[in-house]
Each structure stands twice: as C-alpha cells, then as structure tokens.
Amino acid sequence: MVKLNVxxxxxxxxxxxxxxxxxxxxxxxxxxxxxxxxxxxxxYGCQMNFSDSEIVASILSGEGFTPTDRYEDADVVLxxxxxxxxxxxxxxxxxxxxxxxMKKSNPEVLIxxxxxxxxxxxxxxxxxxKIVDLVVGPDAYRDLPKxxxxxxxxxxxxxxLLSREETYxxxxxxxxxxxGVTAFISIxxxxxxxxxxxxxxxxxxxxxxxxxxxxxxxxxxxFNLGYREVTLLGQxxxxxxxxxEETKTAINFAQLLELVAQVNPLLRIxxxxxxxxxxxxEVMIVMKKYSNICKHIHxxxxxxxxxxLERMNRTYDRAWYRMKVDRIRELMPECGISTDIITGFCxxxxxxxxxxxxxxxxxxxxxxxxxxxxxRPGTFxxxxxxxxxxxxxxxxxLQEVIEMQNKHQFENNSKEIDKEYEVLVExxxxxxxxxxxxxxxxxxxxxxxxxxxxxxxxVKVRVKEFTSATLxxxxxx
Length: 477
Hints:
The protein has 477 residues and is of the alpha/beta class. It folds into 4 domains: 5-159, Rossmann fold (3-Layer(aba) Sandwich), CATH 3.40.50; 178-294, 2-Layer Sandwich (Transcription Regulator spoIIAA); 296-415, Transcription Regulator spoIIAA (2-Layer Sandwich), CATH 3.30.750.200; 420-475, CATH 2.40.50.140. The chain is 36% helix and 22% strand. It has a 7-stranded parallel beta sheet, sandwiched between helices. The protein starts with a strand and ends with a strand. The model is unreliable at 1-29 (pLDDT under 50).
C-alpha cells in the first residue's frame, strides 16, 4: 500500500452543529470498533500539556478506547510534547527511540506525537521519526479518532492546523494519574504576547477564552466528585476575557475568579500564570475577599534587567515589575510569590545578570523555576539576535541564581516556625506512610503526622521544622 501524508481540516467552530453531528455519528461506529483497544498518554512540559492530555483521554474514551498506564499494553501510544526548551525536545526524541524498539516487535501499535512539538515540526516528524503514525497539534484533538482510523489503514495522519475558536469547553476531561484532590481547569488557550524567546504563540495560536459558565460548571462537578482544589490554567490568565455577543457583556479574569470561588467555600482556587503587565488590583482585591482563593501568585520575572526585558519584548521594565510586587505585598502581605528566571539571554551582560540577582534579593521568592536560555527555532530572537552568551557563562550565572534562590527559600522558611496554617491533604509523604503532605494557601509543602486524617481533609498544622524546600509540622488539635 502506498503511504500518504493525510492532512485533515481543523475544527474552526466548537459549536458548529454540522460538525457535532458528524462527531456523534462517528462515535457509534468507531466506539464499537475500538472497544477493547487501549491507549497510553505520556506528557511532558507545562501544566497546560497535562490538562490537554486529560482532554485527549476524554475524546478517546468516548470512542471506545480504554486508558492504560503501561505503554507496553497499549494499541495507541501518544506522547504529548513541549517545545519551550531544547532539553524538553531531546527528552521526547529519546523516549521515541524506546518506542521504536517496542514497535519493531509489535508493528501494529500506533505511535502519535501530540502538542507543541507536533505543531512546530509538523510533517518533518514523519520523515525524521519513521515510527510515528500520527502528528496532532493542540487544536486538533477532536480529530484524533479519525486520525487513528486513517493510521489503522497504513497511512500517515497529520492535523496541525490552529484554530481561533477551539477551547474544548464542552469536553469533560478524564483525570489521568489523579490524586482525587487537586485538578486543572483550562480557562483559555493560546497567547498574544510575542516574547522574543518563546514558541508558544506559534505552537498554540492566538488567545481565546472559555465560556465562564462552563468553567464554573466544571469546578462544581469536580467538587461533587470529591476534589477540593482546582488550578485555573492559561498562558496568561490575567488577559482572560469572554464576551457575549447576545448580551453585549464581558467577563474578565477577576470576575471569573470570583465566580469560581463562589462554587463552594471548601473548594480551593489557584491560578497560573500571571503576566506582570496585566495583573490588576481588581484580581488582588478578589483574592483578598475570598478565603478559598489561595494567596499565591506566580509572577514570571525572566530577567531583572530592563535592557534584557526590552529585548525579550516583555512589555514591562524593572521598575514596573517591582511596583507590582510592592502592590501585592501592600494588599496581601501574606501572599506567596514565585517566578521564572532565564539566564544568558542574547546580549545579557554581567551587569544585567547582577540586576537579576538584585531583583531576587528584593523580592525573595518563595519558589523559582530557573533555566539557562536555549534558542528556539522560529522565534524572533532566533531570527534577529545572536545567541552570544557562551554556554559556560550561562551555566555559571544559572548556578548563581539557583544558589541565591536556595538561600532565600531557606531564610523564608526559617520564619515559618510556630506559624499555623490550614493544609489540604494531598497524599502520603514520599518518605513514610506515617506522614501526610499538603500545601498551605501560599503553595508551600508541609509534612505532618498522619493521625486519622486522609486525602481531601483540611488540617490545621503548626510548623516546627524546615528545609529550603519543605516545612514539617504538628497537628493543632
């Protein structure tokens, strides 16, 4: 049989009646054919990717497939990928090499690449990785059943077309590897911020927001199933904006946050990620008003140098960022702040690096995700800037950032002794089944004796010990 590269048109309208009818009729036929077949999803990258994998699981389960946590048992093996850093892509390629060995002994197994890497590399994946049968972008997951059927016929199947409207709002995600306590809710997709180092606008498309009632309804369903914490996800949650053509009204992120907080006072609300240029007083005032909205903001810095921030097209400078931190601390003194930092971006000097360290010393973050810059193909930086900071220098600067962050976390945690927090139990401590762990409102992990508590309970804990990474405490009776 001649193998073809088949490209399917994307779903441009979520609520297109003709399209929905096509999906429902296919469900009856394909569901019967796929009954008994198993699928495996392996996910890399950000929380959004993990949320997407749950959408994929829901779509395939609706077509008769059953999830499995062992790829060796699967008929369809899917790897949901990340393109944000070179290291993430290398991990995926390494994993595909392992799948290649499996496919040699079982050629009937279908291998699919999903997500950002699929969007970025498109059909090149089929040429470079001969074992790949499906390549599916983040906006094309509704077409997975069709693509699997095409691959079953021995053809290569590709759909990487981006949509301006797809939000998967009507799909109830299947919670994969869930602890039954915490869950993600995707509130928007895509990104309009053209940071020069980032591939997300090219791999996930333009911003579009989900209907607020569908988000609140998903939160309510999760609470009724026993979940006690949800994290609202978006590349930039502060720019969430849903407009009604019928009523000519709009809902912004602060209003959405309040809507979800009102689902139930026992349901904790977190969100990620905020953008320093967009986070508003209105959001912080809502956070302060509701005790079940966690007092934690992830506020990516990326660099403490205004010159570097300008080259990154972050649209704020050092003074603006510092002003936002001051405002958070003014309105919510107890609020935890975490961040992202990149070292060695194009043109970064030692003075720029020192300004980053200086900003870290000012904020004293509770947590940080720290990376050295890796050039991503297709970005503005790759096309227009020279990646001129030697890798050795990038690594040294990264190490200095890590050391400072560890110092700040140790200092911050030392101040937690004898403070009392309400902790949501998420499970057993990694070291002992005699201890449980959970997080406080600020997102800090606290370990404490099990006693008679279990997952999903709220427990009052007094901090008695600490490391730079974890707090340990005793139950307050």
